[in-house]
Request: fold
Amino acid sequence: MYTKIKEYRARNGLTQADLAEKTGVRRETIVFLEKGRYNPSLRLAHRIAQVLNTTVDEIFFFDDEDGEKA
Amino acid sequence: MFEISHVILMQNQQRNVLILLIMAMVIVLGVILLTGNIIEPDFLAWFFILVVIILVLSLLKRSISRKNRSIIVFLGLFMIIATIVIQLTWNLPDNPVSISAVFICGFILLIWAWRLGRYESRDNMIQDERSLKIGTYAISYSWYLTFLVVAMLGWLAAMGKISLDISTFSFLLIILMPVSACFFQWYFNRVGDVF
Reply:
């Protein structure tokens, strides 16, 4: 899984700790998400997309999809 | 939305603690009935360990706060000091496994509290979906490992290679289950997820 969380987070001027606080998760969860090493629940993915002012399919891509690697 | 889901999570945890306490009561009543309604010091020691384990787990499920860590330290010190006092003052016939078990459990609690203290300044105090998932899988893997160990011990005992009394066997399981759960939790936390 690839994500564009890092890119969107930078666009919104948020740190990993800020995003973690706004979404109610640990900072290390955001770290693993950005590295593509954690598959979030639909609820968390939706929450992250909301905080980053985008949609879920704009920031999360799976290996068999045509998404740009973050 | 996050606050509502957090409240639901807390309610579920309280319900789970209640289920654990009911199970503990059933175990205690079962032991009393099976031992002919006689409450012996060994029984009290095992009962005390059971209560402490449930209490510590319920505290940690609520939150890994400084207050809860202090309670764990207090329980650990109490268990260690109590066993030392009992060993020095009581005239015990031999060295019962239950007394050693209380001492080792107290020691484990102190190490656990110290380990939790190392993470106090970080955001590890929060329980999020990843930590809960990892915790659940760690307990599941611990259960599988314990099952394999029990099967192996049963096999060796059936072949006459080893002979374990029930106290040693119970003590082995009491130590193996939480220690292996902690190990798997640490491992999955390093990996990032459970795939």
In short: The domain at 2-61 of chain A is CATH 1.10.260.40 (434 Repressor (Amino-terminal Domain)). Chain A is about 55% helix and 5% strand.
